[in-house]
């Protein structure tokens, strides 16, 4: 959640510019405080940072695999539904064509045109 406001004494300002730097995940972690808390520095801090980055990437890959599986399942269901709809639409077209041929044949026979 983020809140934005203007001070009351600046109501006459027509243009307001807003710069926003939004960090999430591993980028939002304060590595300086981690280094002080765990009393590490240099290469060890870099290794911690890289380990956290790798873990974040791994979690993201797992999430993407799950989403891909869900999307594949939905796609297969949709393909099945479209196939059934196509078969039913073709059946209706054939039935209507058959009825038209039967009706016109009967009509022309009554008018003695055939």
TrEMBL record:
Keywords of this entry: Membrane, Signal, Transmembrane, Transmembrane helix
Superkingdom as given in the UniProt entry: Eukaryota
Localization per record: Membrane
GO annotations of cellular component type: membrane
Stretches of the chain forming a coiled coil according to its record: none
KW Transmembrane (keyword) present: yes
Membrane topology annotation: Single-pass type I membrane protein
All residue ranges annotated as the GOLD domain in the record: 3-109
SMART domains: EMP24_GP25L
Transmembrane segments: 82-104
Family: Belongs to the EMP24/GP25L family.
Protein name (database record): GOLD domain-containing protein
Species name: Linum tenue
């Amino acid at each position: 959640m983020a809140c934005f406001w203007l001070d009351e004494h600046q109501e006459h300002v027509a243009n307001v510019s807003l710069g926003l730097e939004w960090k999430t995940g591993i980028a939002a972690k304060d590595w300086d405080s981690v280094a002080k808390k765990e009393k590490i520095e240099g290469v060890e801090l870099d290794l911690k940072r890289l380990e956290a980055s790798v873990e974040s990437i791994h979690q993201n890959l797992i999430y993407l695999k799950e989403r891909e599986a869900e999307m594949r399942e939905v796609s297969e269901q949709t393909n099945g539904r479209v196939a059934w709809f196509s078969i039913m639409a073709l059946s209706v077209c054939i039935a209507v064509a058959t009825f038209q041929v039967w009706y016109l044949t009967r009509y022309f026979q009554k008018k003695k045109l055939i």
